[in-house]
Amino acid sequence: MFTNSGFPLSRESNEGEALRLGIYRLRPVPEVVRHIVEGDLPALQAAVAASSEALAPVRTTDGTTLSLLQVAVILNQPEVCRWLREQDISGTDGVALLQLAARYAGREVIELFRDQVGTLSAEQKKALYSAVGYEGRFENIAVLEDIGIPVRDFAGNLFRVLAWTDNREALAELLARGVDVNYHEPDMVEPYAPTAVLSATRHGQSEVVRFLVEHGADVTIADRTGERPYTAALKTKDLKLAEYLRSLEPEEWHNQAEKERELKPFTLPQELVDLVSSEDRRLSFPEEETVTWIEFLDFLNLRPLTIRRKKYLLLCDSFEHYDDMYQVLWHGKTRQLFIWDTEHHELHELGTWEDFWSDPGKAVNSIF
User: Percent of the chain beyond pLDDT 90?
Assistant: First the structure.
C-alpha cells in the first residue's frame, strides 16, 4: 500500500501567514483560497456570489499566476475542483491540469480530467507518470492505468528514475503492470538512453541491480556512449557488483584475443596499448589547476562509439571533477585524439598521440 506524507499547507512568519502549494508559496492568503484549503465549497460559493472577482487568479511569491482550479487540484479538493470546472475556471489547459492532478492529487481529482486523455501525445503521457514520482503519489499509477494510460507503454522514464532512487515497492508495482524492464529511450534527464539496471549501477544501488536482474533485466544493453552495467560498476569501484555483472555477460567479451581482433581496425599506437594494458592507467599532472588527473579504461573495456556518423574508440571517461562530462576518444582513420563534451556535444581536437603524450596535462586542460 503506497502512502504519501503530503506537505504543510500553511505556516506563520514575520511576513504573515503563508500557504504552500506544491512547489509554490502564496502570501498573503486570500479568503477564497482559505475556503479551498478547508474544502468549504458553500463558503467559496458564497464568496463568488458576493463578488465575481473572487474567482480571479492568485499570484505566488515567485510571480507565478495560478487559477483557483489549479489551487484546488494541488490541494486535492475534488468537490471544489468539480464546481470550479463547471464555472469554466481553468487558467490553463486540461493537459497541464491533469499533470498537476497526477503529481499532487488523488483518484477523484484525476478522474475529473480523464476527458483530456484523448488529446495527449505520447510524451505527455510519459510526463504524467513522471509527475507521479515527484511527490511520491505512487497510488496514482493505478489511476493513470484506469483512465487509459498503460504502464507498459508510458511508464519507462519513471521506472528508470525509481531504479536509481531505490523505491522497490513502486518498481514492483510497475513490473507487475507490465513495464518494460529493459526500457532505454532517451529523455531530458537521460539523453544517452540507459536501462534502469545501468542507472541503478551508476548510483551504487547494488540490491536494486540484483532485483532487476531477477525480473529479467538484460545487463548486456549499453547506452549510447557504449557503457553497460559492468563497466559502470568498474568506474564506481564496486568490484563485488562488477564481478556479479561480469558473470552475466558473454565470456567472449572478456577474451583478450577477441578484443584485439575487435580493436585492430583502430590501429592504436603501441604506447597507448601499453598504457591501457597496465595496472596503473591514471595520468597525473599536479601542476595543472583545473584537472590534475584522468584515468584510462582497461584494454578489455575500451569501446567503440559513433559520433556524427564517425567511429571513435572511447579511451577514458574518468576526469577529476568531471566524470561522465568528458571523454577521451581515438579516431583511427585520422590517428587523432579528441575530447568529447557529452553535455554540450562538442568535439575538441587534441592532436596526435605523440602531441598528447608529450604533455597530457596541457592537452587535457586546453579545453577549459
Answer: 87
Distance CA 216, CA 182 (A): 8
Cell numbers that stand for 113 in this block: 480530467
CA distance 224 to 314: 12
The predicted-structure confidence for 110-163, as pLDDT tens digits, reads as follows 999 999 999 999 999 999 999 999 999 999 999 999 999 999 999 999 999 999
- CATH class, 1-124 region: mainly alpha
For 229, 306, 349, 357, the CA distances from 340, given in Å and listed in that order, are: 21, 12, 9, 18
Q: What is the pLDDT of residues 210-252, one digit of tens each?
A: 999 999 999 999 998 889 999 999 999 999 999 999 999 999 9
Q: Identical fold at 1-124 and 150-249?
A: yes
Strand runs (DSSP E) across the chain, as ranges?
10-11, 18-21, 24-26, 58-59, 65-66, 282-284, 293-296, 303-307, 310-319, 326-331, 336-341, 346-351
DSSP string across 2-39: --------EE--TT--EEEETTEEESS--HHHHHHHHT
Better-scored residue on pLDDT, 15 or 318 = 318
Question: How many CB atoms are located within 10 Å of the residue 157 CB?
Answer: 22
The single residue listed with the C-alpha cell 595543472 is 288
- What are the boundaries of each domain within the chain? 1-124, 150-249, 263-366
Question: Which architecture does CATH list for 150-249?
Answer: Alpha Horseshoe (1.25)
Q: How far is CA 117 from the centre of its chain?
A: 24
Q: Give the model's pLDDT for residue 90.
A: 61
Q: What does the block give as the cell for 23? A: 512547489
The predicted-structure confidence for 168-189, as pLDDT tens digits, reads as follows 999 999 999 999 999 999 999 8
Residue identified by cell 573495456 is 301
* Residue pLDDT, tens place only, 271-310: 999 999 999 999 999 999 999 999 999 999 999 999 999 9
Q: How many residues in the chain? A: 368
Cα separation, 312 vs 329, in Å, equals 6
- All three cell numbers of 110: 484525476
- φ, ψ of residue 153 to 5 degrees: the values are -100, -25
Q: Considering only CA atoms, give the Rg of the chain.
A: 27
Cell of 203: 548510483
